[in-house]
Amino acid sequence: MQYDEFLGAVQHRAEFGTRSEAVRATRATLEVLGQRLFGGEADHLAAQLPSELGYYVTQAEPSEAFDLDEFFERVSEREGVDLPDAVYHSRVVLSVLREAVTAGELEDVLAQLPEEYTRLFEAGSEGAMT
Predict the structure, then answer these.
(1) Cα–Cα distance between 33 and 42 in angstroms, integer?
(2) Are 50 and 6 in contact (CB under 8 A)?
(3) Which among 12, 19, 18 is positioned nearest to 92, based on CA atoms?
(4) Which domains does the chain have, with CATH numbers?
(5) How far apart, in whole angstroms, are the C-alpha atoms of residue 51 and residue 55?
(6) Longest dimension (CA), the chain
(7) What would the pLDDT profile of 86-126 be if each residue is shown by its tens digit?
(8) Cα separation of 40 and 63, whole Å?
(9) What are phi and psi of 40, to 5 degrees?
(10) Whole-prediction pTM value?
């Protein structure tokens, strides 16, 4: 998936009025995800993304463990939106990410995350996260 296609999908699914909103949500979500990955996994994920998106994943601060609530709070802060919006935007970005990388890479990412993150990746951008 190309950069423009990725952002277009995020913009469409989140019903953003502008591309810059899609960029901001994508950047915030991928940067925070990159913070949560260890042992070169951020580099592996980035290798399957367009370079502009891969940069967001790999330029994050050093890896550290944090739960899903903290993930959403960090996205909210980076994106500059309220927490409910950050949750929704994260779900949209990660639903597009699922389509952009191989199933094996997605499994590798999920293997590094606590079980609670699985529902975030599996829920997609619509409906409840069960």
Answers:
(1) 8
(2) yes
(3) 12
(4) 3-123 (1.10.490.110)
(5) 6
(6) 37
(7) 999 999 999 999 999 999 999 999 999 999 998 888 776 66
(8) 10
(9) 85, 0
(10) 0.92
